[in-house]
Amino acid sequence: MPERDDYRRHNVLHMASFLSRAVASQLCEHAQVQAHPDWKALADSASESLWALYQAVGARSLDESHNISKR
């Protein structure tokens, strides 16, 4: 497993959040996507997956921080 790198993890958190919001606002709300339920479902899924990635990385970061502070 690669060594823990807080800067790179922060970058992953930032990009996952940014991209999730961008997909939600720029794709999910786009008129052409709204007009096609299958496209809308895919765009929603992409946004939700990016948000789930953000949550997973954040949870791991909190767990590791909590474990380090217990030492």
Short summary of the structure?
The chain is an all-alpha fold.
List keywords for this structure.
mainly alpha; 71 residues
Overview of this protein structure:
Helices cover 86% and strands 0% of the residues. It is built from 3 helices and no strands. The longest helix is centred in the C-terminal third of the chain and has 34 residues, at 37-70. The chain is elongated, with a radius of gyration of 16 Å. The model has no long low-confidence stretch (mean pLDDT 89).
The major β-sheet equals: none
Q: Could you tell me the number of beta strands? A: 0
Number of helices: 3
How far do the termini sit from each other? 21 Å
Average pLDDT, to the nearest integer? 89
Helix and strand element order: HHH
Gyration radius, to the nearest Å? 16 Å
Helix fraction bin:
over 70%
Tell me what portion of residues adopts beta-strand conformation: under 5%
Backbone shape: elongated
What structural class do you assign from the helix and strand content?
A: mainly alpha
Unreliable stretches: none
Topology:
Elements (H helix, E strand, L loop, with lengths): L5 H23 L2 H4 L2 H34 L1
